[in-house]
Amino acid sequence: MQRWILHVDMDAFFAAVERLDDPSLVGRPVIVGGLGPRGVVSTASYEARSFGVGSAQPMAQARRLCPHGVFLSPRHGRYEEVSRAIRSYLAKHSSLVEPVSLDEAYVDLSDWESPEDVAAAVHRDLPRKVGISCSVGLAGNKLLAKLASEAAKPSGLRIIRPEDVDGFLRPLSVERLWGVGPKSARRLNERGVRTVGDLQRADAGVLHTWFGAKLGGQLWRLSRGEDDAPVVPVREAKSFSQEVTYPEDVHDGELVVAELRRLASAVSSRLVEESLLARAVRLKVRWSDFSTQTRQVSLVEPTDDPEVVADEVVALWERRLPEEGKGVRLVGVGLDGLLPATFRPLSLFGSRRTA
Ligand SMILES: [Mg+2]
Question: Around Cβ 337, how many Cβ atoms within 10 Å?
């Protein structure tokens, strides 16, 4: 049976929500992200992108590139709200909706008689429904559907029919494929493999020699647009947390940091067990006078890496308000914005962070 998978991706989502709520921002370069000294850009509107601003860039650099931009802190609660509206709209079209992030989802349309009409309807009606434009890709699997929506950005609709797959893939550069990061791409380029078409022409045996049987085989399949990953509907986002209450107030900051690292590791192991990634890390501190502080940070890339979680929570601890003379009664580490880990990029040359 021919599968049909839709990939929907809202355009410049955080910036678009800010504009929805404040129309005076329409047409201006809007940059949403951390505004502190170590902040990074989460989302830049297309106007800001034309100045070279992009996600994951240090905010200081974005300010240099686009000094007249409008710089805003993210309002995650509001983005979650719009995200829920998007999901409930998509749920009308299929019981198989897999959210990948707040503004991206896969929808399995294989049961529809005319998936192309459904894709066109989503592309037309979703922006009317939520007030934000989206890009939509429709193809025979997730890999191709995502590449299709990328090709349609911003605000387009792209359908890749089975007979179009090769023509669509061949000219793309290899790093557009999942799991081919900049480092992997460089290693392929050094061997004369620059486009997906080059990769298709590479002999399967040669790919095995270069990358090992498993990854070589994966590359061979990806280059042909083959992917049989199912659309996995997700339970409602939940959060994990663990905390420790001390029998006596603790005044030793190093002890607290060690405890936070232990909690981070314990709570992260639940992510791995349940194949989830966290989008945000939370610190909770209760002081000896029973006042309680909670601090949260959003991650640029969702993670299940205990070290990343520990570093973030320790950084939150180090930025806490100075609580002179107060001891610590309780510390807790929480993980929020949980997502299925099905979409972690394949790793060809070690972890993504080192790529
Ligand atoms: Mg998006």
Answer: 22
CA of 216 to the centre of ligand 1 (A): 30
Which domains, from first to last, does the chain contain?
5-11+77-166 (3.30.70.270), 14-76 (3.40.1170.60), 170-229 (1.10.150.20), 240-343 (3.30.1490.100)
Q: How far is the CA of 263 from the centre of ligand 1 (A)?
A: 32
What's the gap in Å between 100 CA and the centre of ligand 1? Answer: 10
Q: Are 137 and 151 spatial neighbours (Cβ–Cβ below 8 Å)?
A: yes
pLDDT of 348 reads: 40
Q: Is 236 a catalytic residue?
A: no
The pTM of this model reads 0.68
Please give the pLDDT value at position 95. 86
**What pLDDT digit, counting tens, does each position of 143-159 carry?**
999 999 999 999 999 99
* Helix, strand or coil, per DSSP, at residue 28: coil
Rounded Cα distance between 232 and 106, Å, is 9
**pLDDT per residue over 272-286, tens digit each?**
887 788 989 999 998
Q: Which of 47, 98, 104, 312 is catalytic?
A: 104
The two three-digit tokens of residue 320, written as one number: 């806490």
Distance of CA 143 from the midpoint of ligand 1 (Å):
16
Give pLDDT tens digits for 236-272: 557 889 999 888 889 888 999 999 999 999 999 988 8
